[in-house]
UniProtKB/TrEMBL annotation:
Highest taxon of source: Eukaryota
Family, per entry: Belongs to the glycosyl hydrolase 18 family.
Any one annotated GO CC term: extracellular space
Any GO MF annotation of the entry: chitinase activity
Domain GH18 residues, every copy: 1-242
Species name: Semnornis frantzii
Protein's recorded name: DIAC acetylchitobiase
Keyword line: Glycoprotein, Glycosidase, Hydrolase, Lysosome, Signal
Length: 242
């Protein structure tokens, strides 16, 4: 009886009791062996049908599901938080530090293995937000690596670094500052300013050009994880002329 009581006492509310049947499954997953198969989970029960023999990281973009976390850990896969914040709010270093520490606390409380930063906001080159964003990634990586050993910090980028959708970021600085970039090689027709014309979601050659651009600017190809769209769009004709 005594050891049980002791365990309950030690597993007090500071971090939150481990929701897994085997408490070892609340330990962070460290090292997945070089290659990454990175999945964005958007909630519900689809994770039950994943091929867990292949997945190394699940970015949990849906509602927090402790069952998913426990199951992923039982398969040696990481589960990471989604990180997003209006950039205006993190230009101030003190506010930035507060945001970073909030994310680390949340990750600890939910037994997560890192964070995927998904800031898809417009940024002008050399604006205050431009510099703050690179710092945000650096500070997030430092804090996670320090506080959750073996954790992973990644950043989502557009299919090309050429200011796609006005996202003029310091791509080399951000790549250096995190574990790897997740390249969103999809929705490559996003800038439809004029007539909408049906085109491929991820045209083969255009996709390759994007990677060439990232590599040419000096980013280590080993830090680029390719995102693939497992979806397409229906283009419905509004005005049929023929
Ligand atoms: C970027 O600069 C342009 C021109 O100065 C300005 O109109 C726009 O609002 C700026 N965008 C952001 C996100 O700061
Ligand atoms: C990008 O970030 C790195 C690291 O902070 C910095 O050394 C470099 O000067 C930045 N590049 C530009 C163009 O701002």
């Amino acid at each position: 009886l005594l050891p049980l009581g002791l365990v309950q006492l030690l597993g007090g509310p500071a971090v939150g009791a481990c929701p897994c049947q085997d408490p070892r499954l609340c330990h962070p997953v460290t090292g997945t062996g070089g290659f990454e198969v990175f999945v964005f989970d958007v909630g519900k029960e689809t994770w039950r049908s994943y091929d867990w023999s292949k997945i190394t990281t699940v970015a949990a973009f849906g509602k927090y599901d402790p069952e998913l976390m426990c199951y992923a850990h039982s398969k040696g896969s990481r589960v990471v938080l989604k990180g997003d914040v209006p950039l205006k709010e993190i230009v101030d270093p003190a506010k930035r530090a507060a945001w970073v520490s909030q994310q680390v606390d949340l990750a600890k409380k939910q037994y997560m293995d890192g964070i995927n930063i998904d800031i898809e906001q417009e940024v002008n080159e050399t604006s205050p937000e431009y510099y703050a964003l690179t710092e945000l990634v650096k500070e997030t990586t430092d804090a996670f690596h320090r506080e959750i050993p073996g954790s992973q910090v990644t950043f989502d980028v557009a299919w090309s670094p050429a200011c796609i959708d006005k996202r003029c970021y310091n791509y080399t600085g951000i790549a250096d500052a995190c574990d790897f970039l997740f390249v969103m090689s999809y929705d490559e027709q996003s800038q439809i300013w004029t007539d909408c014309i049906a085109k491929a979601n991820a045209p083969y050659l255009q996709t390759l050009v994007g990677y060439e651009e990232y590599i040419t600017m000096g980013i280590d190809p080993g830090k680029l994880v390719m995102g693939v769209p497992w979806y397409g769009y229906d283009y419905v004709c509004q005005n049929l002329s023929q």
